[in-house]
């Protein structure tokens, strides 16, 4: 296993040198672009929560934050950070994901 690791390192070094020397390379690369995280204002947050038919308490649980945090988002005191805003975007685009995160015993939306 250590021998394979050394061979992989040497191969990578040779590919890097070939690239520097301008030689054609067989290395494939993938370009990944991460979409910008949208900003959510208080109205958009409350609209999303209402569209999902959730109380502030359930929305807080879904988002992994406190009820006070949801309240502060909805009254404009704070805005959701990166991961919370990203989750809101996912839930906005794919509301069915909510069912993978929360379980309802009575089958009714709270």
From TrEMBL:
PROSITE patterns: HTH_CROC1. InterPro entries: Cro/C1-type_HTH, HTH-type_reg/antitoxin, Lambda_DNA-bd_dom_sf, MqsA/HigA-2. Keywords: DNA-binding, Transcription, Transcription regulation. Pfam families: MqsA_antitoxin. Residues 45-97 form the HTH cro/C1-type domain. The keyword Ribosomal protein does not apply. This is Helix-turn-helix domain-containing protein.
């Amino acid at each position: 296993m250590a021998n394979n690791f050394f061979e992989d390192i040497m191969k990578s070094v040779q590919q890097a040198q070939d690239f520097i020397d301008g030689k054609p390379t067989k290395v494939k690369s993938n370009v990944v672009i991460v979409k910008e995280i949208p900003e959510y204002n208080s109205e958009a947050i409350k609209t999303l929560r209402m569209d999902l038919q959730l109380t502030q308490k359930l929305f807080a649980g879904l988002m992994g934050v406190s009820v006070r945090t949801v309240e502060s988002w909805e009254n404009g005191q704070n805005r959701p950070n990166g991961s919370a805003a990203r989750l809101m975007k996912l839930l906005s685009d794919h509301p069915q994901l909510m069912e993978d995160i929360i379980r309802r015993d009575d089958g009714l939306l709270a």
